[in-house]
């Protein structure tokens, strides 16, 4: 009797430790967990190659060499390279035996809406759900534009920065690189109305604002916790990052021609600045040019320009038509790397 | 062949003779091709008349035969339904409906003319020694363009500028659509945009001219329009969220003043 109660308690404790996963989800997670390396209580990395290459988030892992636990083995992670655009870094684990754990892999297609995901965190996995895979994000520091996945999950007590997002089939979706501001997330959660169902229920139980006598019931005590809306880099960019990290140089090459644009009223991308050493500057592009098309694809806005550039490869030569002083100018611009 | 023999042949065909008379007349008809032909015709008529349900075969007679032949042969021709003159406006209306259905839709983009006296695209003037990563902005080598909203070109006058070559209501143009320069400062003339739209439809391949400058807007490349107008984008700044520890993201509805690099 006592042992049964102890077993039940242990099972509940294990379930709580694993973010309330169902037995089936725990089974799926048990297959993924050997590919996760825990860097203390701060961050996690995920195995992307049989040779012991681990992917992590730069902001979550400080230092060029850190100690981690991969599976049941203590390893040292040595930083091999980083991608400043996405903030992802790659580490080499040592000692490492080839094939000692099964790496996660990138899926052929983007994850579908509503797909159940795991977010691997230092305290264990939590469940998440993919909301959309077609969002566009701009990093204000670098003005880089990336397609991102939007996912939501119940906010855990610990920080989620650098959490690795993995499908239940072991496919790598990305790393949590940003979260929506809490007020916006709550507005999105309540359908833009600004008050959630839990809030409404709390107000109802409290008698609304007119009930001054009863003690105020905390809204957090009702229903699930707050939802966190997070973003990960989209599949196309993620693939480029992972393949770059797996290359012998462990470097990622994002295509660029070295210009900055904003929307143009008449349709097109208005060049507002360009780097002196950029391929665009060397090809004759000037500030004030309006990019009309790239390789036959019409450019309607700066977002269209950035989206088109993401599909290009380093070394490719672009045929760019720009509008300059009421004349159309044809430029041939080689794609550089950043 | 006289009338009497013809009557006899008719009786023979309609079996109104005795067998003796019939065999005798058959011999005569066999020797006379014209009589044979006449007999065959009457026999065909009788065969046809048998198909008429209203007259039983035993009631067939010369009189009935004649009245039947006259009734069938002289029946007035059936009139075809015709509206006469009324059909002409109906046909015209139908043609108009078909024409409106297949008529190409007018350009979607608003066509406005920009009339600005100041330079819309200022020429960069570098006032400080350019460093390797310096930006060619009018404000010299400053930091990267800010993401905060910036002033956009103002539409000073929303006059439709295609008065020379465009019929406003029919959206039809003639072949005289050509590049019309803006003012000296290089402001964008509405004709250029309109010509660009036309070039998108007309030109199949880009001009590979040795000189990069072309004065004919129809030389623009055939463009495959990309779907590049998302509804809302997410701005990710460098500040960390106090609760999640991740970079803070903000949704913005308008992308007009967002500067992106590439």
Outline of the structure:
The complex is a heterodimer of chains A (338) and B (262). By secondary structure, chain A is of the alpha+beta class.
Structure description:
- The complex is a heterodimer of chains A (338) and B (262).
- Chain A is α+β, with helices and mostly antiparallel strands and 338 residues long.
- Helix content of chain A is 20%, strand content 38%.
- Chain A is built from 7 helices and 21 strands.
- In chain A, the strands form 4 sheets. In chain A, strands 11-10-7-8-9-13-12 form a 7-stranded antiparallel sheet.
- The longest helix of chain A has 16 residues.
- Chain B is α+β, with helices and mostly antiparallel strands and 262 residues long.
- Helices cover 32% and strands 9% of the residues of chain B.
- Chain B is built from 6 helices and 7 strands, in the order H-H-H-H-H-E-E-H-E-E-E-E-E.
- Chain B has a two-stranded antiparallel ribbon with strand order 1-2. Chain B has a two-stranded antiparallel sheet with strand order 5-6.
Question: What gross morphology of chain B would you assign?
Answer: rod-shaped
Q: Which structural class do you get from the secondary structure elements of chain B? A: alpha+beta
Task: Report the β-strand fraction of chain A as a percent range.
Answer: 35-45%
Write out the strand line-up for the largest beta sheet of chain A, numbering strands in chain order: 11-10-7-8-9-13-12
Lateral arrangement of strands in the main beta sheet of chain B: 1-2
The chain pair with the largest interface is:
A-B, 87 and 78 residues
The proportion of residues forming helix of chain A, as a percent range, comes to 10-25%
Largest β sheet strand count, sense and barrel closure of chain B: 2 strands, antiparallel
The helix/strand series of chain B, from N terminus to C terminus, equals HHHHHEEHEEEEE
Q: What Rg of chain B, in angstroms, do the CA atoms define?
A: 46 Å
Give, in order, the helices and strands of chain A. HHEEEEEEEEEEEEHHEHEEEHEEHEEE
- Topology, number of strands of chain B: 7
Q: Percent range for helical residues of chain B?
A: 25-40%
């Amino acid at each position: 009797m006592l042992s049964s109660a102890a077993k039940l308690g242990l099972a509940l404790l294990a379930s709580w430790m694993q973010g309330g996963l169902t037995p089936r989800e725990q089974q799926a997670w048990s297959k993924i967990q050997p590919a996760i390396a825990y860097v203390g209580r701060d961050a996690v990395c995920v195995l992307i190659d049989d040779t012991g290459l681990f992917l992590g988030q730069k902001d979550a892992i400080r230092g060029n060499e850190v100690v981690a636990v991969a599976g049941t083995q203590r390893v040292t992670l040595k930083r091999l390279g980083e991608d400043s655009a996405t903030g992802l870094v790659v580490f080499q684990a040592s000692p490492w035996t080839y094939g000692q754990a099964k790496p996660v892999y990138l899926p052929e297609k983007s994850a579908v809406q509503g797909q159940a995901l795991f977010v691997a965190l230092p305290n264990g996995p939590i469940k998440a759900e993919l909301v959309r895979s077609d969002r566009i994000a701009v990093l204000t520091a670098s003005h880089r534009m990336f397609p991102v996945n939007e996912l939501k999950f119940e906010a855990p007590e610990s920080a989620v920065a650098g959490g690795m997002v993995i499908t239940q089939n072991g496919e790598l979706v990305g790393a949590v690189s940003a979260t929506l501001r809490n007020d916006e997330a709550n507005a999105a959660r309540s359908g833009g109305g600004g008050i959630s169902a839990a809030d409404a229920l709390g107000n109802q139980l409290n008698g609304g604002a007119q009930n001054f006598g009863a003690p105020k019931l905390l809204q957090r005590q009702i229903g699930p916790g707050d939802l966190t809306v997070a973003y990960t880099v989209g599949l196309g960019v993620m693939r480029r990052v992972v393949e770059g990290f797996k290359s012998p140089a462990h470097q990622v090459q994002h295509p660029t021609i070295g210009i900055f644009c904003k929307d143009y009223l008449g349709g097109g991308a208005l060049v507002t600045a360009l780097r002196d050493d950029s391929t665009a500057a060397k090809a004759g592009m000037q500030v004030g040019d309006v990019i009309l098309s790239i390789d036959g694809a019409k450019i309607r806005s700066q977002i269209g320009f950035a989206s088109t550039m993401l599909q290009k490869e380093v070394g490719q030569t672009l045929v760019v038509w720009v509008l300059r002083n009421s004349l159309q100018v044809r430029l041939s611009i080689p794609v550089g790397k950043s | 062949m006289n009338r009497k023999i013809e009557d006899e042949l008719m009786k023979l065909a309609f079996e109104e003779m005795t067998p003796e008379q019939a065999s005798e007349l058959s011999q005569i008809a066999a020797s006379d091709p014209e009589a044979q032909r006449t007999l065959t015709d009457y026999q065909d008529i009788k065969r046809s008349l048998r198909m008429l349900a209203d007259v039983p075969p035993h009631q067939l007679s010369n009189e009935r035969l004649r009245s039947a032949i006259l009734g069938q042969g002289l029946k007035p021709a059936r009139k075809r339904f015709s509206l006469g003159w009324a059909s002409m406006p109906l046909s015209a209306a139908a043609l108009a409906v078909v024409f409106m259905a297949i008529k190409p839709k007018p350009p979607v983009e608003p066509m406005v003319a920009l009339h600005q006296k100041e330079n819309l695209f200022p020429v960069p003037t570098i006032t400080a020694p350019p460093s390797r990563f310096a930006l060619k902005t009018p404000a010299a080598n400053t930091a990267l363009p800010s993401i905060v909203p910036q002033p956009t070109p103002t539409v000073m006058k929303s006059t439709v500028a295609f008065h020379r070559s465009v019929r406003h209501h029919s959206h039809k143009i003639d072949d005289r659509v050509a590049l019309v320069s803006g003012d000296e400062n290089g402001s964008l003339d509405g004709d250029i945009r309109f010509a660009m739209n036309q070039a998108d439809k007309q030109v199949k391949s880009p001009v590979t001219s040795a000189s990069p400058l072309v004065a004919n807007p129809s030389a623009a490349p055939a463009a495959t329009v990309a779907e590049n107008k998302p509804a809302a984008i997410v701005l990710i700044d460098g500040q960390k969220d106090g609760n999640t520890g991740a970079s803070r993201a903000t949704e913005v509805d308008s992308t007009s003043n967002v500067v992106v690099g590439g």
